[in-house]
Write a structure and sequence with these properties.
Strand order of the largest sheet: 6-5-4-1-8
Helix content: 25-40%
Number of helices: 9
Number of domains: 2
Distance between the termini: 38 Å
Number of strands: 25
Radius of gyration: 22 Å
């Protein structure tokens, strides 16, 4: 820990000890190793007909912080080392917590770090309810350990980790960075991404209790070659912060919108080793320490939560697309699904998805957007893999001086690309015509759905501020 941070902690501790009538929020933090038994299916890559984990490389954690304002209002945020969780799973975990505490389900935000080396979260998966409830215990432990806290907020840039994985290439199409294209074939990345890293530090008597790190990058350093449980780079980030800040330090990672953000620099190519995973995690941890060193006091102690369920129209599957999918699935009926692949999805996956989507495309879904606040800090939860641009848009329009934006929160409805991204890469209806994220089946909702939900987030931020 550097001298500046040590001095800040000393001053903070003295002030907390003598705060008297100063209005401070109460904050509790906790972490739980929820790692399932070996053999449960991994989620995050296409693996053919065998998804079973072979062992554990590093533990999977659930980390939580619970906030209470002077008026008794509460909010809880839980981050789980898992690829994604749908609403039914989140509802189960919220109910489990509410039945055992004074927290209400609507006060709890649950997010996934998006590691592609974690277990299934569907409730019918063997053992899932047990290990997901174990993850939810982190909120119960945090709620039972509320103490006065002074909050600090800091930000920095980390440009050496995350890159736009959508590449504009010389054939006029969008190619993905995991394809390892020749750098000379690449014209450039399909736009900038948001590389700001923000940290909310929780200071209590005796030192910093923990920190909430918000940064946007896919946790896909490990590809389909990996068969072991791993938290991916967020796990290494957490270990690095614990090494410098102390074993009792709780590092909560909230992955920001990262639908088009990856750790892969196309000039170097895809490197899917644990050494690379550790290097990425250490760089994120270093940036977090920089942000903590440059942090400022958070004003206010009010805690409040607001959410809205937004009706969103599903993307249409054309007759031509449906006919193509039927032909592909006729071949699958004869030959079976293809073997696993390191990244992306085969055409057979999309054909299967399109047939199901075709039958239900007239339906609308109701998607949850949630905002929590503590003082002058707001936390926005979005229900899927939103493009990085949406984080920037929400932060720039937020009335709060400090805004954390979280993807894959309270649900996962797959990808939410920007309107512009649907026009990139030429024309066509077959998979990958405009890139992976904009392909129906990877994205589920009509063009503009991401902008719609981001606008609702800004509206809720304004309501919560006022």
């Amino acid at each position: 820990m550097n001298l500046f941070v040590k001095l800040s902690l000393l001053v903070s501790g003295l002030l907390l000890g003598a705060c008297g009538s100063e209005r401070l929020p109460q904050v509790g933090m906790a972490e739980v190793d929820y790692t399932p038994e070996v053999g449960k299916d991994l989620v995050g890559n296409y693996r053919g007909d065998d998804y079973a984990s072979r062992g554990k490389h590093d533990p999977l954690y659930a980390r939580a912080f619970v906030m209470q304002g002077p008026d008794g209002n509460k909010a809880a945020v839980l981050s789980v080392d898992i690829c994604w969780m749908r609403r039914a799973t989140v509802d189960m975990m919220r109910s489990y917590i509410a039945e055992r505490s004074d927290l209400r389900p609507e006060q709890i935000l649950i997010a996934s770090t998006h590691t592609h080396s974690g277990p299934k979260s569907l409730l019918d998966a063997p053992g899932a309810v047990e290990y997901l409830q174990r993850a939810a215990d982190a909120v119960l432990q945090a709620n039972a350990d509320l103490k006065p806290a002074r909050l600090r907020f800091g930000s920095t840039r980390e440009d050496s980790v995350a890159y736009n994985r959508r590449l504009v290439c010389r054939d006029g199409k969008i190619h993905m960075s995991w394809e390892n294209p020749d750098p000379d074939f690449v014209v450039g990345e399909a736009g900038p991404i948001d590389t700001e890293l923000s940290v909310l530090s929780i200071d209590q008597v005796g030192g910093v209790r923990g920190a909430v790190v918000n940064y946007g990058c896919h946790a896909t350093t490990l590809s389909g070659n990996n068969w072991l449980y791993s938290a991916d780079y967020p796990g290494y980030m957490a270990s690095s912060l614990k090494a410098s800040e102390g074993a009792d330090f709780v590092p909560v990672y909230l992955n920001a919108p990262c639908g088009n953000a990856t750790q892969v620099n196309y000039r170097r190519g895809y490197i899917d080793t644990y050494e690379e995973c550790e290097a990425v995690g250490n760089r994120v941890a270093d940036a977090a320490r920089r942000a903590m060193s440059a942090s400022c006091k958070v004003e206010g102690a009010e805690v409040a939560v607001i959410r809205r369920f937004v009706p969103v129209k599903r993307i249409a599957i054309s007759e031509e697309q449906y006919a193509w999918a039927r032909r592909v699935m006729e071949r699958v009926a004869r030959e079976g699904m293809p073997p696993f692949q390191l990244n992306g999805m085969p055409d057979e996956y999309y054909a299967q998805e399109w047939i199901g989507m075709y039958a239900t495309q007239q339906e609308r879904d109701s998607l949850e957007v949630m905002v929590c606040r503590v003082g002058d800090v707001a936390v926005v939860g979005l229900p899927g893999e939103f493009f990085s641009e949406f984080r920037r848009m929400i932060r720039e329009q937020s009335p709060f001086p400090h805004t954390l934006v979280v993807g894959i929160a309270n649900d996962n409805r797959k990808y939410f690309p920007t309107k512009a991204s649907f026009e990139q890469g030429g024309t066509g209806y077959l998979p990958m015509a405009h890139g992976y994220e904009t392909t129906p089946g990877t994205t589920l909702y009509e063009v503009g759905a991401g902008e719609q939900l981001a606008s609702v987030a800004v509206e809720l931020l304004n309501l919560l501020k006022n």
